[in-house]
Amino acid sequence: MKDSIALLLTAFVVAATAWAFWFLAGPNGFDAVILAALVYLAVDNFRLRRSLRSKQPD
Q1: Rounded distance, CA 15 to CA 13, Å?
Q2: Minimal CA–CA distance to 19: which of 31, 29, 9, 8?
Q3: Which of 5, 11, 28, 44 measures 20 to 30 Å from 35, CA to CA?
């Protein structure tokens, strides 16, 4: 019972956050999501390149 209440509360919070994001962002919401994904991929690419560079033998 306690787990199902926590699950419902979590679902409500996530749904309210998603609604608030799309309501406040309006037509620019998709651009914000794409920009966030692009920044994440650039940072991850930088991190992976640095990791590969440190593992190469000299």
Answers
A1: 6
A2: 29
A3: 11
